[in-house]
Amino acid sequence: MNKLCRQVSIESPGPSMKDCVFSFEVPVPDVPPKGARIRVVCAGACYRLRRSPSISSISSVSSTSSLSSEISQDLSCGSAPVLPPQSPAHHGLRDGALFPGYEVAGIVESLGAEVEENEELRVGDRVVLYPYEGVPHGYAEFIIVPELQYLVKIPDSMSLSVAAMLPTGALLAMNTVFKAHEYVQNILQERGDDGLCKILIVGTGGLALWAMRIAAHHYQSMKNKVSLTVASLKDEGFLLAKEYKEVNVVQWNEDLYENQIIERTKDACDGTVDIVIDFGTTSRSLHRSLQCLSQGGVVFISSEVAEKLLPKFSRRAEERKQCIKPVDMGSIEQLRQLVLLVGTGEVQGML
Fold first, then answer.
1. What are the residues whose beta carbons fall under 8 Å from the beta carbon of 51, sequence distance 6 or more?
2. How far is the C-alpha of 8 from the C-alpha of 142, rounded, in Å?
3. Which among 141, 136, 27, 37 is positioned nearest to 80, based on CA atoms?
4. What is the rounded distance in angstroms from the CA atom of residue 250 to the CA atom of residue 241?
5. Which residues, including other chains, have CB under 8 Å from residue 285's CB and lie 6 or more apart?
6. Tens of pLDDT along the chain (351 residues)?
7. CA–CA dist 166, 99 (Å, integer)
8. What angle separates helix 283-291 from helix 258-269, to the nearest 10 degrees?
9. Which of 69, 66, 104, 82 is nearest to 28 (CA)?
10. How far, CA to CA in Å, does 244 sit from each of 201, 213, 230, 291, 312?
């Protein structure tokens, strides 16, 4: 019989209960033959929808067809199946976690029986988990991966708390900055030696701050060619963004009229911008971004909000000859690169 370990579920308050955090006991998962079992040390509160990430570089993927299939997954304990625990806040639902904890950093506790001895990873190594399709919830003491290719070893210089921030938010930010690079190159080529490409990053959460830091590093050799501006939605993000002297900052104060915010942004950017990286995720934010964007410009948004926002704004963008581009989470190769950049201090990690 499998031993038990603790698992936490973070949910929305139910009709009869106002608590949001619940603790359960679940079976310790068996180690996959070619995979590993990880002792979870840190798991981030991420909001990513459960959908297939950008994994073109991965040849073999363990997937589930829907959330319901994951909820009904057989967690066998001996010969008798053990179902996920009943949600205390939402009667009739099992495993109603809204924050499953995809951002996982921990320590390799066991390796599968078929893992070769010359593999790069060893028991005791500190790792971060790439959130592949079908990844289990990370708010448990142990989590398994079917293949070692989903694990990225982290350097001793990086804390596990910082490492846990990288797999979704920071990785999405990196992929967005990289997707924008092609447009930056085209714009600068068209404008010649004296050309300037202006980028506006919207938001102050982890996504926007990671994008700001990654973009500042990525374009550090092109400071005279690329202008970065952060449109801050909150005071705390405004103060953090000011740490970068090469980055302009404009505060989007929601108490102001919309036209005032747009004019304030254009003043800070010295006119309209060529590229917007918008992590605001709302109709109002995207509408404002389009007003600050030049004709022929492009707005990058997360693919998770694209389904909701594109039907509302695609026609308007076409009329202005603008483009809205959804961006998926980055690849596992990008995660390895991100770990290297943060580990060496080339990109500053969150504190």
1. 133, 303, 304
2. 11
3. 27
4. 10
5. 202, 203, 278
6. 468 767 766 665 555 556 667 666 777 788 999 999 999 998 876 555 544 333 333 322 222 222 222 222 333 333 333 344 555 444 444 444 444 556 889 999 999 999 987 678 899 999 999 988 877 766 778 888 999 999 999 999 899 999 998 988 899 999 999 999 999 999 999 988 889 999 999 986 778 888 989 998 999 888 789 999 988 876 555 555 566 666 788 888 778 888 999 999 999 899 999 999 998 778 888 999 999 999 999 999 988 888 889 988 988 889 889 999 999 889 999 999 999 999 999 988 765
7. 16
8. 50
9. 82
10. 13, 9, 10, 25, 35
DSSP assignment letter at 27: E
CB–CB of 114/47 below 8 Å? no
56: left (phi over 0), alpha (psi -120 to 50) or beta: alpha
**Under a CB-based contact definition with an 8 Å cutoff, are residues 248 and 201 in contact?**
no
For residue 46 the two structure tokens come to 């991420």
CATH 3.90.180 fits 4-164, yes or no: yes
- What residues have CB less than 8 Å from 225, skipping those under 6 apart? 188, 195, 196, 197, 219
Fold (CATH) for 168-329 = Rossmann fold (3.40.50)
In the chain, residues under CATH classification 3.90.180 are: 4-164
CATH 3.40.50.720 maps onto the chain at 168-329
218: how many CB neighbours lie within 10 A of its CB? 20
Q: What is the identity of the amino acid at 256? A: L
Count H helices, E strands: the chain?
Answer: 9, 15
Q: Which two tokens stand for residue 240?
A: 């953090």
